[in-house]
Amino acid sequence: MTEPILSLRDIEKRFPGVHALRGVSFDVRPGEVHALLGENGAGKSTLIKIISGVHRPDSGTMTLDGKPVHFSNPNDAQNRGIATIYQELGLYPELIGAENIFMGHAPRRRFGPFSIVDWPEMERRAREILADEPTAALTEADVERLFDIVRLLRERGVGIIYISHRLNEVFELADRVTVLRDGQYVDTMAVKDVAEPELISMMVGRTIDNLFPKMHAEIGDVVLEVRDLKREPHTRGVSFSVRAGEIVGIAGLVGSGRSETAQIVFGTLPAESGEILISGQPVKIRHPAEAVAHGIAYVPEDRGLQGLVRAMTLRENNSMAVLKEVSRSTFIQYGSEKAMALEAIRQLAIRATGPEQIANKLSGGNQQKVVVSKWLASKPKLLIMDEPTRGVDVGAKSEIHRLMSQLAAENGLAVLMISSELPEILGMSDRVLVMREGRIAAEFTRAEATQERIAAAMMSDNGAAPAAAQGAAS
Q: Which of 83, 142, 262, 455 is most exposed by smallest CB count within 10 Å?
């Protein structure tokens, strides 16, 4: 058996109020894809940050190529050949692509006594990298290309630690899998020797019988109707409706106009033309405050930049959409705000030290739950959810799906759900809309929708879908 490139033994790490890692051991071998699994808050990110030099362990040992190592910062890790790609994009929007790629390690050349950035070399190397092009931010169609790159690196003898909440990716790509739960090591196994239900049970400490707990709902009157909505080049005459108690899923490739359509309805992007009706009445929505006043709530795709103020507490984030309800005159009532946050923690099973925990210190899945709870506090008629379970573990996914289904079935909430995960679209939607190049390419009832039909409508040049599916009842 090949000796590990990297080995960690009995790693401990504490933060204020949190014992993040409890005696965790882990290793990765040359030419191996080693999947690291666990719920949000299990300790995966902390372990990766120790490996990449962001955090130092409180105790335990780490060896690289058989020699003990101690990284003081990420540069130390990079200089020893450890590269880390995080889930969140973390780009500098004001810089060009090549500058983002080589931030902190740009190629340089001598200019007399000085060292300057070698721009031609940086651009050449950036082109090479971009010719290859991980996967919460990718659609199903993009993932296989990523897999090809990972397999190529594996063939070159690179050891790869792969973290994903998509278990199908683990079974397709990984050689071994290690599971963490509540900061503790559970087990390491060859992927060929384990089944999906066993992995899920190991991660969450219980059996999840149904990842998509879809409840029967009585479909009521139309809550949202969109007629010929246009904002070039993103939306080009989009029309659809969503009824009370109904979950309408929107599928499509990145760039198809899915998110832009939702942002126009919520008022963050202005429409050039078209009409929006709420409960049959035409409305003008020029900014989010008007959308909220009409009973629309929006859980955005990027929770970090659009959904949360990460430097503020869970309590403060949770009340942002309903400040009038927790205020008297110009003063926020701390007791009311705290009670609302405690109810959100209970209802959505948010893992936090309490209402005063800073949002940035929550795991990704728990941050997502805070964004959802913030908008539920506004008691909306229409809930728009853009990638509702992006970067969320399997246990939290099931909880969010259950809550979505319950709100539709028991409260009559109309839900518009945008997702890049076709199993989620198929599992939760009463109707499926497929967008392509800014238009509705096809519409399917729940009974008609299949992964093959949706994929064909997303990618075919003419937006073709089976004739029986076109113009399904709305």
A: 83
